[in-house]
């Protein structure tokens, strides 16, 4: 049982990204007068991640535009930021967080919002010309590489997930040569199924981006003849010279600092349906794995809307205490912008769901598709059809039947 927070208690938020900022804002919105300490391992004030693979990488936006708030608005919240300090340990008995600078921070209530870090390709750590894209510094480094090399750059993107696809699309828009290497036979098959994954693959091919699917990466080695920074060796024996390699093979939740804390860990921080992980401890965003009562399963979601909504709900539940807390059961929503197309998904599709296109066509790359699981509507996907897609959100919230969704599509 977690008791409500006293109005003058100290609440610590570990993670200065979207989920952490939304949590801190909600704490102040609820009238909390005590100290609110926001820790972050980056030196930057909270910023938005989606533009990193698009507008900021392309140079269309400057850094100031991706910060969530101006310095004046942050100051008005009365938060204590401790940036450039990584959490290294948690003692839930003493209620302290250990920091990378050797200090400890006491808390009465704790929000864990440490997010996730990019997976790295084994053997490429520290290799020149090999990058991931997760942080602002990652983006600025990759952008500097592209600007230095110019239109003659050869970019190999390893992984055709949403981040890899967006990086490929942005690089293509800059006029550079792009090759995508994907281990699965169909990109995004695990996220949206084979049928819609093939449609997304068509976006790459329509743009003239080389897409190598069903292909493993054997190794990445430094270029030896001075003509490229690296060479990517594929499982079929092909060697791809590259000036820049971007590794987009997913992320892992940042939980290493919690190993001895007693907090449950299993593909993230294990939470109940109200986002509590321990007494007076909640988690939110990419790091939280919670019981979604609407879906009837434990899930972890790595999308912007979950970080924003979950951060606020976690903070609210922490402040009011577990007895008054509410279940967090949102309808998942995410989007991706590629080659001028907007891909949006509501719900939680599975690879084995039946998929029915109810508006537009796959050939035109403009459509609405519904996902069926049993007799229920499980998800809806749209490519460049945002208005039509949103009509299905109330049905997903209500747990509607697939026949009801088909009826709406024909109306």
Mean pLDDT: 96
Number of DSSP helical runs: 10
Q: How would you describe the oligomerization state of the chains in this entry?
A: single chain
Q: Please tell me what the overall shape is.
A: globular
| CATH fold-level name of the largest domain | FAD/NAD(P)-binding domain
Q: What would you report as the Rg, rounded to the nearest angstrom?
A: 22 Å
Give the name of the CATH architecture of the largest domain: 3-Layer(bba) Sandwich
Q: How many structural units, i.e. domains? A: 3
CATH superfamily membership of the largest domain, which one? FAD/NAD(P)-binding domain
| Portion in beta strands | 25-35%
Count of DSSP strands: 27
* Poorly predicted tracts of residues: none
Question: Which strands sit side by side, in order, in the main sheet?
Answer: 3-2-1-7-20-19
**Could you give the distance between the termini?**
49 Å
Query: What is the CATH domain class of the largest domain?
Result: Alpha Beta
Biggest β-sheet, characterized? 6 strands, mixed
- Proportion in helices: 25-40%
User: Which structural class is indicated by helix and strand composition?
Assistant: alpha/beta
Task: Walk me through what this model shows.
With 411 residues, the chain is of the alpha/beta class. The chain folds into 3 domains: 11-117 and 252-320, FAD/NAD(P)-binding domain, CATH 3.50.50.60; 120-249, FAD/NAD(P)-binding domain; 340-410, Enolase-like, domain 1. The chain has helices at residues 18-29, 55-58, 71-76, 136-149, 162-173, 189-207, 304-320, 386-390, 393-398, 402-410; strands at residues 11-14, 36-40, 80-83, 87-91, 96-99, 104-106, 109-112, 116-118, 130-131, 154-158, 177-182, 210-213, 217-222, 230-234, 239-242, 244-247, 251-253, 269-270, 276-278, 281-283, 288-292, 297-299, 333-338, 341-347, 354-361, 366-373, 376-383. The chain has a 6-stranded mixed sheet, covered by helices on one side. Strands 9-16-10-11-12 form a 5-stranded parallel sheet, with helices on one face. Helix 1 (18-29) runs parallel beside helix 7. The mean pLDDT is 96.
